[in-house]
Structures are given as structure tokens and as C-alpha cells.
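Lab manual, section 2.4: Encoding a predicted structure.

Procedure: take the sequence of the chain (228 residues), apply the prediction step described in section 2.3, and record the output as C-alpha cells. A sample record is shown.
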Amino acid sequence: NNNNNSGDSVGVLSVDGDFIVDKKYLKSLYLAAFLFPHSGQKADNHNSVAFYIVRNSLRINTEYAKFVDHMHDNADQIISLVNRIHSKESVTRAEIGNVIHRLGSEWRLGFLFASTVEHYLTQPENQITNFTQEFSPPIVDSIMTKYCQVIDYIYLNKIHEVLSLKHLITGPELKKLLTIPPGPIFGEILKKEFDWQMNNPEKGLEDCKEFLLNEFKDKLTTESQDSH
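Recorded output:
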């Protein structure tokens, strides 16, 4: 296994088809698991039900409440991504990289949590009593192995390096290259640039400029003409 000692991720190691969790993250993962049935529910306009329970009912540090939200918000997308990779469907580096980037240094904890959620969601409703019920070992093993294999795939292809990736072109340089008008298109361009960099790690600045010009020059020219 090639990811045991990597410093890009906190909390969990993938070792010989299994996960080993740092004890200081167990409390956070237990909270996320116990509160998963409330995933997606809102307590008010600003906070999820899970966040509210952790912060206001249990009176636990906000850091834990944010962690629970983070795990819940990303679980579905991780499950979909892992199963697409496992089924050998076409998945871009950017799709994987965006999930890792969003989770930050907790990305492997996110994959561990998602593996548990996947098993929970695949149980027949009449067999589910709560999130901590005893699961079938063969099914658990197959799911955990699948997730560990995907993590190995991520490391083998160096997709985790997205955490240190910086835009090749930003700010004034980008405005000068494309003559960008004020507005939301600036954010769209930066997103497209970042995705392109993740999908083309071997390419450099000049390739990036060519991509952006081909992708946006006509659109920007049209919008500029329309505004006049």
C-alpha cells in the first residue's frame, strides 16, 4: 500500500484493505454516524439539524458540529464516485480532485464515513434498527476493500496532490489575457481553469493560456458586444 504515511490527510490510514482511525477523530465520526438520519434536514435558515444538536443540545465544540456537516454534505457524492470508479466508468481527475479539494485534509475520513453510509443505505429497511447495528462481515469487508482500492487509485495517480494545487493564472494576469468584464464569469473561468489543471497535470502555463483563450474568448467577445 502506497499511502500509509502520507502527510496530506489526517485522521485515517488505509492499510491492507482496512481503515485505521486516529483515536482523536473517533468522537467526530461517532457523532456523524449517530446523526446521519438527520442528514439534509434544516433546523433553521442557517444550521442543519445535526449542527444544532451537536452545538446547542449536546453543547459540544463548534469544530465537531462543522465536521459532522462536512461528512454528511459529501457522503452521497463520495459513494457515487467510488462506485463509478469501481465499475470502471469514465471518471475525470477533476471530478475526483474536486471532492478531495472540498474535503481538504479530512478527505480520507470522508471516504471512511461514506463507506459506512453506503453499507447502512444498502440494508433492507426491516433490518435497520440504528446506525450502530451489527453489520454482515462479508458485506462490510467488500465495501471497505472497494474504498481502500479507490484510495490507492487516487494515490497511484497522484490526484491527492490537488490539495497543494494553485491556479496558474489569477487576478490581473487573467483579466489581461481575456479582457474580463466585471461579473460572475470571473468565477466561472477560475473554476474551468482549476478543472483543466487537475485533468492535465503534465501541462504548463502556455497550455493553460491556450485553453482559456479557446474556451472563453468567443464567449467574452459576444457578451461584450451584447452589453453595447
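Check your result against the sample. The mean pLDDT is 85.
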